[in-house]
Amino acid sequence: MFPRVILKGTMFKKSQQKKRTSPCNYKERFFVLDTQDLKYSERRPGKKPMVKGCIELHRIKCVEIVCSDVPIPCNYKYPFQVFHDNHYLYIFAPDNDCRQRWVRALKEETKSNSLVAKYHPNFWMDGKWRCCLQTEKLATGCHVYDPVGYGLPHDVGQRMVIALQDYTPLGDDDLPLLKDQEYILINSSHTDWWTGKEGAFMVRDSRQAGVYTVSVFTKAPGSNGEKNPRVKHYQIRQTETEEISFYLAEKYLFSTIPELIHYHQHNAAGLITRLRRPVSKDGGQWEVDPEELILGQELGSGQFGLVLEGRWKDIKVAVKMIREECMSDEEFKEEAKVMMKLSHCKLVQLYGVCTQRSPMCLVFEFMENGCLSEYLRARKGRLSQDMMLGMCLDVSEGMAYLESSNFIHRDLAARNCLVSKNNEVKVSDFGMTRFVLDDQYTSSQCSKFPVKWSAPEVIKYCKFSSKSDVWSFGVLMWEVYNEGRLPYENRTNAEVVESLSSGLRLLKPRLAPDSVHLLMEWCWKEKPEDRPSFALLLHELASLSDL
Ligand code: ADP
Q1: Which residues are annotated as a binding site for ATP?
Q2: Is 411 a known active-site residue?
Q3: Whole-model pTM?
Q4: Based on the number of CB atoms within 10 Å of its own CB, is 283 exposed (0-12), middle (13-18) or buried (19 or more)?
């Protein structure tokens, strides 16, 4: 009897990493589920599809969605898992409906198999299960597996919760809450049952004098498998060595609490979730108190004025002093609130704005290794292929985040990226050109306009988009693989515009492999819609780095 096809479609799959050393990558595959197997193949235009994997259905022990709290580095964002033999296959569907169809169909076909009693609702990643923190990949699951139901159960029962902030009722149906008081939750079917969102956190005094606790709100499944919204508390501990360090999760030590918090805002590192959003009492957190800001030596100067080293609440920061005639102040103050909400480990974080001081200043995360173009030039001849690809990957990650936040950079270039103490590259100065008052900079006809990094539609009609950022990213990749050389070194802006319109492009850098050069050329397609998105670039670069 021939097998009958049940479902087919394109999805992404993560490499199964059957050996510890095998690479982690995400590939687009065409999946076919029939009454016998789950098969996936590679489809290339003009070529025969090539079968890359086949799992006999009777080998499958569990199929379930994955509840994840980490960003997903491929285009499709709805993961589910197929546990077969001793391997976990993670598949990413384009939307929730599609995922639901696949999980339902696979469960239906495998319901009479010998199935697991318990499964892991979150990913296996970096040597541990994100749900229960067990470090053995084949460790028994932490959540009861339901071979017919879909997703996670909604029954919740009664739970204790702690108020993270005072709440004054807005209507008759509201309950007043007092910070730090415990409440019993009897119905959480409405997921926004309190004002918090995943990763909302605060640092508070704990009951013990002199000890601080970090309380964080999460909806991630707990170790007993329950998926209830709850508040988790972590005590900030101190080492007993001579030089005191603070930590939440053992391995990550910091000399100050703000540094510790800042780290965990970007990395869960043992916590149930990273600390995503501070819960503030007044919402005016973007204003930096000038009393708390200590200014130090000069780091450099930019288009807005001097950049100084500084300290703010015991963290090292970079402070941009804004010369008055350089920036449209009022507009910027509004936008700063938006920019502060952008938070990603590959973006240089804006901590706040100090408007009570003249000149106004902006307080940023400190980047020990300065700007990327200088960094490249200083290491000329000593940069490995891995390092160069890693830099492009870092920038594409930061930009994919901006793209997904619908935020346009407008001035992406190596000079606007900075390098951290651990040599990570982060994107800086996003959106700032909108506040420059210097005409020489803002008009594409003028000398300071970054013509050599600009897409044709920007030069012609000032039409900025994430796709014009993609063009600039291509030039940035070119700068990386030319070790910080300036693009079109001996040509004027006018000459560059002319050669672009006759279809010429920057030449392949000597150090760039063909695969990377192809990506650059893709970024420099005349029509914005023909260029890849940052999400796709990130995916492509990630798969190159795994080769
Ligand atoms: P602008 O945006 O005003 O043109 P830049 O961002 O180019 O200013 O900054 C000028 C110089 O100051 C940079 O080349 C770099 O050396 C230094 N700098 C800027 N921001 C930081 C930072 N966050 N950490 C460390 N150094 C910085």
Answers
A1: 320
A2: yes
A3: 0.56
A4: exposed
